[in-house]
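Quiz preparation item.
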């Protein structure tokens, strides 16, 4: 059976993606690092709608933990494989570079970029072997154009965009697509401390996006209809791209 894994599936965009992919019929593995309560709530919601889901705790920045959790899952599911991977887990640790703590630089790079590497490396081989897979990487407007106060985050997201394009070339013949989604401002816990009233004036659409809107885009990229789309960065930002 084909499964889907969403890293950081317990909250925000990831939670909406889990629910949407479950509606497509995939059993969903909801990864989280701290908020077991939130991950369980997503699982319960999916099951209440007739879908299948399980939670899996691991810190994507910790290679030993990630390998142990995903390796354990693979061992206990010899007949199955994770055919859909959404690399979504993330944090923000913003500061101007001149005031940035070294740990904030490394933490953000480790979670976003090294997390993408560790999880994807483990799962892309079975996808290629089975000759079908979908990888969607959550990038950001910040990685497309750079944003002040986010050199760490922009570097991580820019790295993910470049890696998306490179990996797409490597696995296209195996019917594995690799794309990035680059949201602008989306209403989640990650943006709740921002001044939404001020910032939404900078968005041509005049509002922040909803997690569901990003989830709908991810679901399309995961679907069979998107088989010929690979190596792309799809921006979803209400027009905030210049
Ligand atoms: P969010 O609401 O803060 O949720 C973050 C999710 O990531 C949570 O599920 C959290 O798990 C998980 N997570 C954080 N660190 C992790 C780690 N080390 N290992 C595993 N899971 C981890 O964030 P969001 O706004 O939905 O963001 C989701 C993705 O979209 C991120 O990659 C973010 O950079 C990107 N993005 C967001 C926006 C936006 O405006 N919101 C814009 C562009 C891009 P716990 O619940 O266990 O803490």
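Solution:
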């Amino acid at each position: 059976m084909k499964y889907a894994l969403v890293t950081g599936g317990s909250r925000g965009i990831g939670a909406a993606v889990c629910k949407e992919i479950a509606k497509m019929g995939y059993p969903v593995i909801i990864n989280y690092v701290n908020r077991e309560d939130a991950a369980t709530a997503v699982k319960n919601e999916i099951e209440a709608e007739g879908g299948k889901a399980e939670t899996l705790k691991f810190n994507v920045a910790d290679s030993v933990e990630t390998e142990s959790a995903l390796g354990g899952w693979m061992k206990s599911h010899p007949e199955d494989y994770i055919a859909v991977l959404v690399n979504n887990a993330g944090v923000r640790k913003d500061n101007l570079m001149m005031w940035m703590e070294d740990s904030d630089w490394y933490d953000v790079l480790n979670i976003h970029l090294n997390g993408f590497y560790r999880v994807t490396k483990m799962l892309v081989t079975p996808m290629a072997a089975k000759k079908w897979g979908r990888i969607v990487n959550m990038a950001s407007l910040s990685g497309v154009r750079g944003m002040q106060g986010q050199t760490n985050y922009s570097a991580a997201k820019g790295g993910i965009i470049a890696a998306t394009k490179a990996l797409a070339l490597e696995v296209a013949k195996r019917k594995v697509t690799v794309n990035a989604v680059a949201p602008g401002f989306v209403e989640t816990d990650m943006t709740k401390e921002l001044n939404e009233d001020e910032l939404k004036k900078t968005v041509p659409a005049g509002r922040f996006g909803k997690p569901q809107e990003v989830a709908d885009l991810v679901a399309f990229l995961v679907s069979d209809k998107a088989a010929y789309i690979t190596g792309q960065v799809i921006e979803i930002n209400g027009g905030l791209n210049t």
